[in-house]
Amino acid sequence: xxxxxIWINIRYFIIYLVCFQSFSVSATKLDSxxxxxxxxxxxxxxxxxxxxSICYEYKFIEKNKATEYGIKGLSLAQKLxxxxxxxxxxxxxxxxxxxxxxxALALEHFLKARKIFIELTDTSGLSNISNNIGLIYYKRQQWxxxxxxxxxxxKYNLLIADSNSYGNNLNNIAVIHRKxxxxxxxxxxxxxxxxxxxxxxxxxxxxDALQNMGIIMYEKExxxxxxxxxxxxxxxxxxxxxxxxxxxLHYNMGFIFQAMNKYDNAIQHYTQSLNIAYxxxxxxxxxxxxxxxxxxxxxxxxxxxxxxxxxxxxxxxxSIYNLGKASKISELQTKYxxxxxxxxxxxxxxxxxxxxxxxxxxxxxxxxxxxIVILISxxxxxxxxxxxxxxxxxxxxxxTNIKIHQQKNEILIQRNQLEQFNEELLSQKDELEKQNxxxxxxxxxxxxxxxxxxxxxxxxxxxxxxxxxxxxxxxPDVDLIVPKNIEFFHLYQAKDxxxxxxxxxxxxxxSLLLGLLNTQLKGTSGAFxxxxxxxxxxxxxxxxxxxxxxxIMIGLNSGLYQIMNCENIIHAFSGVRFLFVNxxxxxxxIWAASSGISWYGYMNSQIHEFTSQNMGIGLTKDxxxxxxxxxxxxxxxxDKLLFSSPGSIECIQSEQKIQDIAGFINNVFADDxxxxxxxxxxxxxxxxxxxxxxxxxxxxxxxx
Length: 704
Hints:
Layout: H1 2-39, H2 45-58, H3 63-79, H4 83-99, H5 103-120, H6 123-139, H7 143-159, H8 163-179, H9 183-199, H10 203-219, H11 223-239, H12 243-259, H13 263-280, H14 283-300, H15 303-327, H16 329-335, H17 340-362, H18 365-442, H19 447-462, H20 464-473, H21 478-481, E1 486-493, E2 501-508, E3 511-518, H22 523-543, H23 549-566, E4 577-584, E5 589-595, E6 599-603, E7 606-610, E8 629-634, E9 640-644, H24 648-656, H25 661-670, H26 675-682, E10 693-700
Antiparallel strand pairs: 1-10, 2-3, 3-4, 4-5, 5-8, 6-7, 6-9, 9-10
Helix pairs in contact: 1-2, 1-15, 2-3, 2-4, 3-4, 4-5, 4-6, 5-6, 6-7, 7-8, 8-9, 8-10, 9-10, 10-11, 11-12, 12-13, 12-14, 13-14, 14-15, 15-18, 17-18, 19-20, 19-22, 20-22, 22-23
């Protein structure tokens, strides 16, 4: 890191020289203008032009001086009845007040200038002043007024065929629409701006439009389009040679990939941005990327690389902090301002040069010597003041360095703790693998089923999408199972790729058998549980020919308990809510048992709710009938039943803002249309699911 500190110090030294040279050029120009003004006493257009130029130059250096000469110029313009200069000076003064956050005074000057530009029919001036007024209202968050004046500026630029400014107006309008939440309109105006800059072959303008559209897509959480816009913006900035912009875009793309947990892609873009930061010698950009790389490697579990990048980050942070505190270079670079002492020196130098010119003309050597002595005295005082400041800064830097070294030591301690924790995790992993192997040897009673589940588990863990396809494959073929005298409706929608819900449908003799299962497990664990429950139900019903809801409930509990313990995921398992129904479609008689799932029946034109407050099954080895609710009763033609996983109806209820859910379900059941058509008519599926939704409906038609 020694080499890096060397080049970072050289970089800031070069920046200081460039900025000092630029400031010196500006000061030289001011000196020249002030000398001309001092020598030109006639109140005419020449003096008016000098006052306007001095006002403009001072606006980057000192507000008070800028406003002083601006007010003098404004007074002379009014005296000479020169409306063109009057409007231009009013505009400059408005910009000065706006930069120093005096928006009310700025708006007053802009409106006066606008009135004059209208009288002069100065379209170019009206374009600039309309845009400036729009900026004032933008700062005040008065979006309608800002939009009105940005549109005026766009109209004037269209009249004078200033395509570049017209494109910038479109971007300003797009920003307003984005602020008021009209994202589609914002995209539309940014696209128009992009098309204009594309015709002008303005790569930077195209890049700005693409980057703004990418930001809107990010706010809409459409990360794929965000990345596409940013990638296209990178191409345009590369063509324009804008390495700073390219580096920042790579950093932004890395940030998005990190938010998507795609750490390899994030590391790739952060690395490219870091290389550009080194190339352009940008310590700030390098510091951000080093910190981000450390976070991503830590997320991947590569703690060694994470600690290495953290160490590099603190080295660069140390260099930038020390240089920033010592010289205030960053303020000189970004604001084009100097410290008040340096401003005072420059003003004294201007006065000294004016006096020197007068003394040279009068050839009075005594006054020249006196001036030189004064300048030397002032320089010595300034040097002494700077020396005292340097001592204070060195003390502050020493204290800061001590704190930074303490932070480094803390990080090293944390690094050692992480490595120790990693070793403990590896040890625990080995021990768990041994325990898992022992448990597998003891699972004789479910040998073949366990092998099938293990194979499916391996497939599920390989891919989340594959797990979702496996779960969808378990959905029964309703047309082959449900008899003709029963109308069956089902709505099965997962919040994510894999649902925590699962329903089972089968037929044995005259019995239509229906099971509904709900669990908090998601992802591959949820798919694995669905497969396990499906296999257990098949084994209990088709192999053992069991149709009693009570005994099926007890058998499923025992099987799930063994599987969850054997697969070592019991720590994430909070039980299964389960409902099983046996409907004799010949006799139209129903037996049902439920643990944690409530359901509804529509009989005799009334809604009946059958509730179950039990906690679920699968958490204990054995359960008894008190651990679940049981029902049995006679049905008749026209009766309707609704079974839903916990929270499904509440999810749809929240979307439709329904207060009386029982009354709402009664209206659905009372609909004369088919059950499926009634559900599609009355239930509106939310665009964004807050949880899994599973609804199963039965309608008893005529006897077969």
